[in-house]
Specification:
- The protein is of the alpha+beta class.
- The protein has a domain of 92 residues: Sporulation related repeat (Alpha-Beta Plaits), CATH 3.30.70.1070.
- A six-stranded mixed β-sheet has the order 1-6-3-5-4-2.
- The relative contact order is 0.16.
């Protein structure tokens, strides 16, 4: 009898110390981690590059840069496209590479209406029909990029409603 009690006691000790039997006896809910650390990833800053075309560096200059020494203008957007124009406009402006654009329309009728508004404001606009199908309102054109950028900044300063004017480069 002492043997049976001793064997039963030994088995009880062995089973209570074994992890396999503990997990099957107690069904606990899985524990979730409540205090997870926030992981922060850092992205290296972009490297500054030297521009090959120094004329392009004038894109942030404003008319008052000489007086204040600082520049706050938004960059001059540029796009290169093929376009057509009327024969009269072709004779006057066809050989110019840089075109100052103040409006772009999907309808020639709307472009014509806007052209009349620009004429009333003192501009001499003409319409370019782009390869993308848009009718671009050009108010000036140049062969020199720096002069074209200067004109865009001038228009943005004098006419704040045309702050989104940009340059169209003839392909």
């Amino acid at each position: 009898m002492k043997r049976i009690i001793l064997v039963a006691f030994t088995l009880a000790l062995l089973t209570s110390g074994c992890k396999v039997f503990k997990s099957s006896k107690k069904s606990q809910a899985p524990q979730t981690e409540t205090s997870a650390e926030t992981k922060v990833f850092s992205v290296p800053a972009p490297k500054s590059t030297v521009r090959e075309n120094p004329v392009s560096d004038t894109m942030y200059e404003t008319a008052d840069k000489a007086t204040t020494g600082t520049s706050t203008a938004k960059p001059v957007s540029m796009r290169s496209e093929s376009f057509t124009m009327t024969s009269e406009d072709q004779a006057a402006y066809g050989n110019k590479k840089y075109n100052v654009i103040v409006g772009s329309f999907s309808s020639n009728e709307n472009a014509g209406k806007f052209k009349q508004e620009l004429i009333q404001q003192g501009f001499k606009p003409y319409i370019l029909h782009s390869e993308t199908g848009y009718y671009r309102l050009c108010v000036d054109s140049f062969n020199d990029e720096a002069a074209a950028r200067s004109r865009v900044q001038n228009i943005r300063t004098q006419y704040p409603k045309y702050a989104d004017s940009w340059l169209l480069i003839k392909k």
